[in-house]
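Propose amino acids for all 137 sites.
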C-alpha cells in the first residue's frame, strides 16, 4: 500500500522569490514538477508544497483568493524532532526574509504541556508553526 502524502498549495506573488526562500530554509525544489506557474517544494518524503503563481492558483477554484499578506488564511504546523530543529528552521526563515511572530501567552501555554514552538511568516504572508512536543514516557 502506498504512503499517504500531503500537498499544500500556496499562492505566491513572486515564484522565484518564494523558491529561493524555501530553498534557503533547507527544503528542496523538485524540478520534475516545477515550471513558470508552479514549483514543487519537498519538505520530506510525505509532505510537499506546491507554490503557485497567484494567477495560476485562481484556476483551481472559483472562490476569491484571500490576501495572505494582510489576513490569516491558514496555520501550517510542522512537527519536528527537537527544539533545536524548531529554532534552526525559524532562524533560517528569518535570515531568508521571513518574519517571526512572537506570542508570549501562546509560548507559555505550550511550555506547560512540554511543547516548544515558534512562528514564522514567509514573504507571501503564509504562517508556519514548527514545533517539538516532548512526549512523556
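Proposal:
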Amino acid at each position: 500500500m502506498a504512503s499517504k502524502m500531503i500537498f499544500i498549495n500556496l499562492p505566491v506573488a513572486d515564484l522565484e522569490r518564494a523558491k529561493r526562500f524555501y530553498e534557503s530554509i533547507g527544503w528542496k525544489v523538485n524540478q520534475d514538477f516545477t515550471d513558470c506557474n508552479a514549483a514543487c517544494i519537498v519538505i520530506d518524503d510525505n509532505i510537499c508544497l506546491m507554490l503557485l503563481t497567484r494567477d495560476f492558483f485562481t484556476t483551481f477554484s472559483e472562490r476569491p483568493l484571500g490576501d495572505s499578506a494582510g489576513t490569516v488564511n491558514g496555520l501550517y504546523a510542522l512537527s519536528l524532532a527537537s527544539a533545536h530543529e524548531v529554532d534552526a528552521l525559524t532562524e533560517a526563515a528569518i535570515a531568508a526574509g521571513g518574519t517571526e511572530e512572537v506570542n508570549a501567552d501562546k509560548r507559555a501555554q505550550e511550555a506547560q504541556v512540554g511543547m516548544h514552538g515558534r512562528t514564522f511568516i514567509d514573504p507571501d504572508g503564509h504562517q508556519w508553526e514548527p514545533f517539538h512536543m516532548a512526549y512523556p514516557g
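Helices lie at 15-24, 54-57, 83-95, 104-112. The beta strands are 6-12, 28-30, 38-44, 47-53, 75-79, 99-100, 115-117, 120-121, 127-133.
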